[in-house]
Amino acid sequence: MITPEFLRTMAAYNAEMNRRVYDAAGRLPEAERRLKRGAFWGSIHGTLSHILWGDTMWMSRFDGWDKPAQGAKQSAEMHEDFFALRTARAEADRRISDWAGRVAPDWLSGDLTWFSAILSKEISKPTALLAVHFFNHQTHHRGQVHAMLTAAGEKTGDTDLPFIL
C-alpha cells in the first residue's frame, strides 16, 4: 500500500505547505487570524491549532511524543499565541520528518492499538492506514485554512505536491 518513501515525501510536503500557510497567516493582523469564518474549528488560528493538536496526538501513538494536554474539543486553543503556535509547528514538522526517516517497512505492515478517548474504546487498525490518515488530516484542514487565507486576501503560492518538492 504505502512505503517509508511515501511517508518521507508527505512529511516534506506538509512541512513546506505549513511554512507557506504560516507565512501567509503571519502577514495578517491578529484579529483576522482569529475571525470566526465558519470553518469547523472557527478561525485560521483555531484550525492551525487543531492541526498541530492532531499531529501531536498521532505522533504520541506513532513515536512516543507527549500527548497534548487538551482534549479534541479544546484543540483549537492548544496555543493561544500565534508565534508560539508557529514555533511549535516548525518543531513538530522537524520531528515528523525525523520520524518518517526512521520508519521501516515492517512498521507499515503492522497494526496499532490505542485507547480512543473520543470513542471511549480500544481500537486497533493497520499502521499504514493510520499513517495515510495522519497526512490526510493535515491536508484536509490545511485546505480549510488555505480557503480562509484566500478569503482574507493572502496567498500561499502553489499547493500542488508535484510542483512543490
Overall description:
The protein is mainly alpha-helical and 165 residues long. It has a single domain, classed as Up-down Bundle (Four Helix Bundle (Hemerythrin (Met), subunit A)), CATH 1.20.120.450. It contains seven helices and two strands; from the N terminus they run αααααββαα. Strands 1-2 form a two-stranded antiparallel sheet. Helix 1 runs parallel beside helix 6, helix 3 runs parallel beside helix 4 and helix 3 packs antiparallel against helix 6. It is globular. The protein starts with a helix and ends with a helix.
Helix content: 55-70%
- Radius of gyration based on Cα positions: 16 Å
Judged by helices, strands and strand pairing, the structural class is mainly alpha
Extended strand count: 2
Overall geometric form: globular
CATH superfamily: dinb family like domain
- Low-confidence stretches are none
What are the secondary-structure elements, in order, as H or E?
A: HHHHHEEHH
In the CATH hierarchy, the third-tier topology is known as: Four Helix Bundle (Hemerythrin (Met), subunit A)
Major sheet, described briefly?
A: 2 strands, antiparallel
Strand content: 5-15%
pLDDT average, as an integer?
Answer: 93
Distance between the termini: 22 Å
Number of helices: 7
Q: What is the CATH class?
A: Mainly Alpha
Number of domains: 1
Q: Going across the major beta sheet, what is the strand order?
A: 1-2
Architecture (CATH level 2) name: Up-down Bundle
